[in-house]
UniProtKB/TrEMBL annotation:
Keyword list, A-Z: Membrane, Transmembrane, Transmembrane helix
Principal localisation: membrane
PROSITE patterns xref list: MFS
Localization: Cell membrane
Transmembrane intervals: 55-76, 83-102, 108-129, 150-171, 177-201, 222-241, 261-282, 294-323, 343-365, 372-396
Record membrane topology: Multi-pass membrane protein
InterPro entries: Bacilysin_exporter_BacE_put, MFS, MFS_dom, MFS_trans_sf, MFS_Transporter
Residue ranges of domain Major facilitator superfamily (MFS) profile in the record: 17-400
Organism of origin: Kineococcus halophytocola
Protein name from the UniProt record: MFS transporter
């Protein structure tokens, strides 16, 4: 009598895992946005200049950069579920140290250590949830990674709004960060229970599965590295908007601060819409064509923003900028995870290359902006978008197993591994 239910079990497990991965992305976005909302408070409490706060924030970036190349090996050893949970525990521990250092003794060194640990935790969490998302794509035969990243954006928006309310009611930094720490641990403990069983974990006795590669070998694969460049370009384009779009409107058009924030809001909304539309676009037009078109739209949007004679035209540029940026990062992660046996190490490599843009991009653009102005400086993002257009062919489906089923797979040129 149970025989008819057996074929449904894998699909049911995949659907539960899909919901769980959505929730995990939301939680990660909630944490990131909560921390960002408290940066001004931390700066003022510690009595730091903007330059001093930049150095403190560098500790978080360094933690991420150190942990991300190793995260793939951790995922292979313990699986995505445990890696996400351990990453959340590290995030919680780091936030606890930051909260105690800032609101307690006002000590800079422990705060930097806490941020380093939190950065390492969120990097591991990030890689693992992308590996799991890639596995869910393969099980469901749908290109849905962009919707997972849209869930992350939703988490940041909700958390930012909550942060505004907490600040208005005078909730101290330690209480806010402690609450997020508890949510991170408790939330991931629940969501990861529905992850796919055995994803990315070696076989019995830790024997290496047939066709698997090591992390060192992944760093030497042309396709994987070029996908990393693609993600780096997209991350640079997105990071430029995050850091400089609002200032570009304010400085370039002598607009009020609120108008600059409105321009950034247009960008975020457009990017979220683009990510929600990602499955249909990717399955209709294929990865390479979609990515090339997206890169072209982003480049046109940035050029429109830079050359805009009015604020209204700048807003239109921000809209195109957001739409064009939406799919590069999540689709790069999907491409890296095409082959299940090597998804963890390849996603780790691609993440490491891509996140370099978030570390190096803001200070480099800041230096350029000092010489040519913010609006002109963001032209560098248009150059990155064009580079992304030319390397998009690397994201073509891998020869062995992809998120797109063979019936829907479109002929796309690709670089060999």
């Amino acid at each position: 009598m149970t025989a008819p239910a057996t074929p449904l079990a894998p699909a049911t497990a995949a659907l539960r895992a899909r919901t769980a991965v959505h929730a995990t992305f939301v939680l990660n976005g909630v944490f990131m946005s909560a921390w960002v909302s408290r940066i001004p408070s931390v700066r003022d409490t510690l009595g730091l200049s903007n330059g001093g706060m930049s150095l403190l924030l560098l500790a978080f970036s360094l933690g991420s950069v150190v942990a991300m190349p190793l995260a793939g090996a951790v995922v292979l050893r313990v699986g995505p579920a445990r890696t996400v949970f351990l990453g959340a525990v590290a995030v919680a521990a780091g936030l606890a140290v930051v909260a105690a250092s800032v609101d307690g003794a006002g000590l800079l060194a422990p705060a930097a250590l806490g941020l380093f640990v939190a950065g390492a935790g969120t990097a591991s969490w990030d890689v693992a949830m992308n590996v799991e998302g890639s596995a869910v794509e393969r099980r469901l035969d749908r290109s849905i990674m962009s919707r997972f990243h849209a869930a992350w954006s939703l988490g940041t928006v909700v958390s930012a709004g909550l942060g505004v309310l907490l600040l208005r009611f005078g909730v101290p930094t330690w209480a806010h960060l402690a609450g997020v720490a508890v949510l991170a641990v408790a939330g991931t403990a629940v969501t990861t229970r529905s992850y796919l069983a055995g994803a990315a974990v070696p076989g019995e006795g830790r024997e290496r599965p047939a066709g698997s590669i090591t992390l060192r070998q992944a760093w030497r694969e042309p396709r994987t590295l070029v996908i990393g460049v693609l993600v780096l370009c997209t991350a640079f384009v997105e990071g430029t908007a995050n850091d400089w779009l609002a200032l570009g409107i304010v400085d370039g058009h002598d607009a009020a601060h609120s108008v600059g924030v409105a321009g950034f809001t247009v960008f975020v909304v457009a990017m979220t819409v683009g990510r929600l539309s990602g499955p249909w676009l990717l399955e209709t037009f294929g990865r390479v064509r979609t990515l090339r078109t997206s890169a072209a739209v982003a480049a046109v949007g940035i050029a429109t923003f830079v050359l805009s004679p009015t604020v209204g035209v700048a807003m239109a540029g921000a809209l195109l900028w957001g739409l064009g940026t939406a799919l590069g990062f999540p689709t790069g992660m999907s491409a890296a995870g095409d082959q299940e046996v090597n998804a963890a190490v390849r996603v780790s490599v691609v993440s490491s290359v891509g996140y370099a843009a978030f570390l190096a991009g803001p200070p480099l653009l800041g230096l350029l902006a000092d010489h040519v102005g913010v609006t002109t400086a963001v032209t560098a993002a248009a150059v990155a978008a064009v580079v992304g257009l030319f390397v998009a062919s690397a994201a073509a489906p891998h020869a062995e197993g992809t998120a797109l089923g063979s019936a829907r797979r479109r002929p796309e040129g690709k670089l060999s591994s």
